[in-house]
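Researcher: First entry.
Model:
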Amino acid sequence: MKYKDIQVEFEKTLEKAEAEAPRALAPKIVPEPELTDEERFARIVELNPSSAVLAAWADVEVALKSVAEQAGIQAPGRRFSSPLWLARKLEQIERIDRQTFALIDDLRALRNLAAHPEGDRAVSAEDAWRFKQLADQAAAMLRANGSAR
């Protein structure tokens, strides 16, 4: 066994592999199979339950903004209206009821805990799924109560 011959052969093989790599590793566009909302959420939960909570909360915010827009609510002098401000305004004009407002406020507080964990308060996968169920319920209540009035 010769050390120098092995090194030269290794270098030549490595150079050949590097030259072929761009062709061999060129990305092949393969369409991702369509995932359901539940499957997408499950993937996020698997990667990071706290991020899953944020994703579920986003649906509540979209529903809030939609109902507020339908009700003609615009925040004067603001580019962005906080979800709590929008929910409060919707409750004041009776586009949502007190129960819906309370649920949104609780979910907002939980979302904030997930976004800014303190100490060992990590969100579990089970907690993320439970949050999603409540967020889905809140979004449905918003759409039903908000657009029906």
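Researcher: Second entry.
Model:
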Amino acid sequence: MATHTDEKLELLRKSPFLEGLSRKDLEEVGRLADEVDLPAGRTLMREGDLGREFYVIISGSVDIERGGKHIRTMGPGEFFGDISLVTERRRTATVTVKEDATFLVLGHREFHSLMDQFPSIRLSVLESIANRLRALEPDLVH
């Protein structure tokens, strides 16, 4: 029978966000992140609130809304909460659990530690932020 640590590593390994990391690196990410199960209907963050957490979806899905309009649905391997942690600005969207979900959650300090330790993750996060900001403000020249 697999240990809880092995199960967590398997969840981490399935995330495209963490692809390419060695087992040792995945173990380090596992030490930094908390695994959280949340039910459908739970609001994780609200647009305009201050952000202190970063989420990677392991299973299930979430709905993303901005200005009361549905923007998209995100699923396993995708992540959110990065914009406010990097820019130190308020949340750009409201996120609600669409179907029961499991997340890896990193607080502010752990998120920055992760990005410092793993340049490939830092690059992935920064590319994601650039793309999301472009999508949020399509009329601006980038």
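Model: Note on the second entry: The beta strands are 34-38, 43-45, 53-66, 69-74, 79-80, 94-107.
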